[in-house]
Amino acid sequence: MIRNFIDWHALLNSFRWRTRFTLWLAALVAGLVVVGFAKLAELALGLFFLFSAGRPWLPFILTPVIGMICVWLTQRYFPGAQGSGIPQVIAARRIAAGGNDVKGLLSLRIASGKIFVGALALLGGFSSGREGPSVQVAASILYTAHRWLPHTRALRSSDLILAGGAAGIAAAFNTPLAGIVFAIEELGKRLETRTSGVLISTIILSGMVAIGLLGNYNYFGNLKVLAQDRSAIFPVIAGGIICGLLGGLFSYLMLLPHFKSNFSVWVWRRNHPVAFAGICGLLIAMIGWLGGGLSFGSGYTVTEMAAKGEVTLPWHTPITRYLATILSYYSGIPGGIFAPSLAVGGALGATMGEMLGVAGNGAIMAIFMAGFLAAVTQSPITAAIIVMEMIDGHEMVISLMAVSFLAKVVSARVSPELYQHLALGWLEKSNRTKNG
Length: 436
Prior knowledge:
By secondary structure, the chain is mainly α. Helices cover 74% and strands 0% of the residues. It is built from 18 helices and no strands. It has helices at 2-52, 59-77, 86-97, 108-123, 131-145, 157-173, 176-187, 193-214, 233-259, 264-271, 273-290, 300-307, 317-331, 338-356, 362-377, 380-391, 397-412, 418-435. α14 packs across α15 and α15 (362-377) packs parallel to α17 (397-412). The relative contact order is 0.15.
């Protein structure tokens, strides 16, 4: 009798550890893939700027053509890969929680398209990021790993989708803590005690892969942060209001095709998606030319240089980046808005720094980055922690939290939650496909 109990206890332990090993192996793979995606995106952007250097006419050809190719590939071979990827993950988690299949939103095929077509879009100079797409990529890998568990009931597939999406943020930004908060605040709205330990370890492991391969770097470097005192009150209030209004308008404009779906422009886009992408590409090239090329790409490099005080951004930088990002989203390419949103916020902060006579103050740029990202996503804790971890600015946590919550409150008066609303669209599309 005792022997049977010992054998059963050992079997349970083996079962638990095999489950953990499978998840941790999937997290390692997800981290490796996201890091590879980051390197590929960096290469694509480098090639765009290399090709277009001294050739201001080239984006007028390259950007529209690559935009049309990206949308054609997405429509033909990778449906479900367009856009950020975060709304697809939110929708997939809800569908999976109901016991339904989500292969139309998460799969290795879609993940492959997200990576290669997303990198191709950056080769065309589109204002998009790879952080949001990394969420869908990592969620696809963890969702696929569900079938390899010793018993598929060990963990629900919806929990693995949540863990995968958060692991994508952790690895993309090199910020494991932000990944955990993102899982709670945006993707799942909660973590259950029954599964939180193993899922959090999965998220952290994926982030540690990025740290191990890329080093314990800060996304925007070590910014020059001044002592935080009462002088931060005005930038926080101004940042919260300005970023809240502009970020809320940004979200509203991105939701416009859903609010006004019968408007002739959006009807034409649905009927001619490839041609529409070409027109968006042409407009993005025009904006880039007018703005001196500062609106091309994700905005990472120029924002990092401005934050370090190495360059001074012209007053029009936030405007051109703002418009280029919206057009990039409208085009239908696979690409995210995290990095471009941070770039818009950073440019707004740089402009505010010029007005206050403290140009090159990385603290003000960080405040506006957190504010604008919080306004766009309406996830203030995630935004504050992402920026805090990205710049090694733990002493700014109060300022970042304050501006993020204020921006979220203002933004909510202008637009509904962007990702949650887009997720409803994917849910409706999934239901139509299932019923049709």
